[in-house]
Design a protein that fits this description.
Helix 3 crosses helix 4. The longest helix is centred in the N-terminal third of the chain and has 17 residues. The chain has a domain of about 160 residues: 3-Layer(aba) Sandwich (Rossmann fold), CATH 3.40.50.150. About 35% of the residues lie in helices and about 20% in strands. It is built from ten helices and seven strands. The protein has about 240 residues and is α/β, with parallel strands linked by helices. The termini are far apart.
C-alpha cells in the first residue's frame, strides 16, 4: 500500500488555502485514506487509488467548503457515498453533529466502520432522501446541508432543501463543467424556500471548482419533495 504524505506536507497544503490542520486531524485523515484504499477491494467508493491524490481531491476539496460554513451546527451530507464531504468536515469540526445519508447500504456500512474507527460525531443513515425528509423530526432540522456529485440542478435542490431549516445553509460542490443556466438552480431555489444562490468559482491545486451556496429564508412547501420517479420524469 502506498503511504500518506507527511504531516508537514499536508499541513502546508491546507495552510495554503487558510485551513488549519492539527496532528490529531492528520492522523485521522491518514487512517481514513488507508481505509478508502483498502475498501476498493470490496466496493467502488472512489476511483482514486493513491493516498496522496485522496488528500487533494477528497480531503482538501471537502475542507475548502468549511470556509463558507458557520462554526457549529447540525450538518447533513446527502449522497455521501464513502463519506465525502461529511467525514472530512466532521474530522475538522468535531463540534458539528453530522448525519451521513446514502441509499446504498454497503456504502453506509463503510461509513459506519470509519466513524467507529475514528470516534467521530457522525450518524450514518441508509435510506432515500425523498423518504427521509418526510420524517417530521428530520425535515427542516439541519443548519447545514451539503452534497457533492449526487444530482444536478432542480433534482438536487428538490431532494436537499427540505432538510434545511429556516435561516440554514445549503452548499453543493460542483465540478468545472457546472452550467448555472442549464441546471436552473436560480429559478428553482425560491420554489423550495431558498434564496437567490451565490456561485463561487475557485481552484484547488489547479483544478477548477464551483460551489453553490443557498440561504433559506422560507419553509419548503410540504408537497416537496415528490416521489423520485416523478422528480426524474418531470424536473421542476
Amino acid at each position: 500500500m502506498a503511504e500518506n504524505p507527511s504531516f508537514s506536507e499536508c499541513e502546508e497544503l491546507f495552510r495554503k488555502y487558510e485551513i488549519p490542520l492539527t496532528e490529531d486531524q492528520y492522523r485521522k485523515f491518514c487512517r481514513y485514506a488507508d481505509m478508502m484504499v483498502d475498501e476498493k477491494r470490496h466496493q467502488n467508493i472512489t476511483a482514486i487509488r493513491e493516498q496522496r491524490e485522496i488528500w487533494v481531491r477528497h480531503f482538501l476539496d471537502s475542507a475548502y467548503i468549511s470556509l463558507y460554513m458557520p462554526q457549529f451546527g447540525r450538518l447533513l451530507d446527502i449522497g455521501t457515498g464513502g463519506g465525502i464531504p461529511g467525514i472530512p468536515l466532521a474530522i475538522l469540526n468535531p463540534e458539528y453533529e453530522v448525519t451521513l445519508l446514502d441509499s446504498e447500504i454497503n456504502k453506509i456500512r463503510f461509513c459506519q466502520e470509519v466513524v467507529f474507527e475514528l470516534g467521530l460525531n457522525c450518524t450514518p443513515v441508509s435510506t432515500r432522501a425523498e423518504e427521509y425528509s418526510r420524517l417530521l423530526p428530520v425535515r427542516e432540522s439541519f443548519d447545514i446541508v451539503t452534497s457533492r456529485a449526487m444530482a444536478s440542478g432542480s433534482m438536487l435542490l428538490e431532494l436537499s432543501l427540505p432538510f434545511v431549516k429556516r435561516k440554514g445553509l445549503f452548499l453543493a460542490l460542483k465540478g468545472r463543467n457546472f452550467d448555472e443556466e442549464r441546471e436552473a438552480i436560480e429559478r428553482v431555489s425560491p420554489l423550495l424556500g431558498g434564496s437567490k444562490p451565490d456561485f463561487v468559482h475557485y481552484e484547488i491545486e489547479g483544478e477548477e471548482k464551483n460551489l453553490v451556496l443557498i440561504d433559506k429564508p422560507d419553509l419548503t412547501p410540504f408537497s416537496y419533495p415528490r416521489r423520485f420517479a416523478k422528480i426524474k420524469r418531470k424536473p421542476l
